User: Fold this.
Amino acid sequence: MTAPYILVLYYSRHGATAEMARHIARGVEQAGMEARIRTVPAVSAECEAVAPEIPTEGAIYASMDDLKNCAGLALGSPTRFGNMAAAMKYFLDGSSSLWLTGELVNKPAGVFTSTSSLHGGQESTLLSMMLPLLHHGMLICGLPYSEPALLNTQAGGTPYGPSHVAGADSKRPLDAHETSLCTALGLRLARFAQQLEASRG
Assistant:
């Protein structure tokens, strides 16, 4: 049996969401848990387009077993018209077998996103990602206002989960507040997962 891990699952086109995932993973590891970083392939309009089994760079693609066996989940996607990206939606749409058997029930989950503009649909995207997780019976974990960065941020950051403003060219790096909130979510998810695991023992 493998050691408990938090699955940090994301989709990223320009790198910002991937960078957020790495900071969330650091928070998980600060709590003494393994962070398993995974991504999903892009969705193509061409029926014959097939992604390689292993990406040429970045995190490897997630499997349903990665999701099934996690102790908790951090789910991230850039905003697409106020919603999660199609690639992430496609992956989640394929998780009905886990729903049927209740594999994710009572596991903690959090969400994160990145947008080009300050009011580019961050909160609606975070909420859209929560919906399938609620259907799976997961316990949604946001960010409390006891996190100073949540009150002081001038860019990304919401109580629904970490967010980032990447700028019109998608090149603005995460600032200190955005980074802090990513780390805080990872730490929080890991601690909840540990507490839940201890209560089962």
